[in-house]
Design a protein that fits this description.
Helix content: 25-40%
Order of helices and strands: EHEHEHEHEHEEEEHEHHEE
Distance between the termini: 33 Å
Radius of gyration: 21 Å
Number of strands: 12
Largest sheet: 5 strands, parallel
Bound molecules: calcium ion
Strand order of the largest sheet: 2-1-3-4-5
Length: 223
């Protein structure tokens, strides 16, 4: 497993590199965002540890450019204690996790192991099922590249279905996640909204993606 550490504080970079090497990982270190970007262009990493405050190219900017190139390597951000805005921006930009400096080394190792255990996932802000794409942070849905206009409730329902791709969701799960209050289960509001969604995303001869699972609920599936 090869890890890239992008960190401009030499002492911190050295400490991380030493610890990771002792734990059996291959480690490269880059001292600024530009150098990090160069490494990523030529080498395939299993994990990237990315400081946010970096000279030349900042951590968030670097992360955005990685995700734009569709590189799905897990990224752990290293942030300052008071960097809440940075952490939020970083997670929205596609970071998988973050650690607040100073951190305990066993925690870093545990987070790395957790990410390596995870199956490769879709870029967390863009969900895809067949030719249906949802950019969660931009609040955009496209089918075959064509923008689809959804109400907030329709968007929430579709997002929940897409995040659980191929899994059957019960009526209760759907209603509780999307409507967020105790809903009278006899109501047909869920079916009405599923109907709206189907009309909007299954136009023409496009493959139907939202399936009814008789007596249970619904799922989205391109099989
Ligand atoms: Ca820094």
């Amino acid at each position: 497993m090869r890890i890239l550490v992008v960190e401009d504080e030499k002492g911190v970079a050295k400490f991380i590199k030493q610890g990771l090497s002792e734990a059996g990982y291959a480690v490269d270190t880059a001292g600024d965002g530009e150098e990090g970007s160069d490494y990523i262009a030529v080498m395939e990493y299993d994990i990237i540890l990315l400081d946010i405050m970096l000279p030349r190219i900042g951590g968030i900017e670097l992360l955005q450019s990685i995700r734009k190139k569709n590189i799905k390597v897990p990224v752990i951000l290293l942030t300052a204690r008071d960097g809440l805005t940075d952490r939020v921006a970083g997670l929205d930009a596609g970071a998988d996790d973050y650690l607040v400096k100073p951190f305990a080394f066993p925690e870093l190792l545990a987070r790395i192991r957790a990410l390596l255990r995870r199956p490769p996932i879709q870029n967390s802000t863009v969900l895809k099922v067949h030719d249906l794409e949802m950019d969660v942070s931009r609040h955009e849905v496209k089918r075959g590249g064509v923008l689809i206009d959804l109400s907030p409730r329709e968007f929430a329902l579709l997002e929940f279905l897409m995040r659980n791709n191929k899994q059957t969701l019960t009526r209760t799960q759907l209603i509780e996640h999307v409507w967020n209050y105790d809903f009278y289960t006899g109501t047909n509001v869920l079916d009405v909204y599923i109907g709206y969604l189907r009309k909007k995303i299954n136009t023409g001869n496009l493959k139907p993606l939202i399936r009814t699972v008789r007596g249970i609920g619904y799922k989205i599936d391109d099989a």
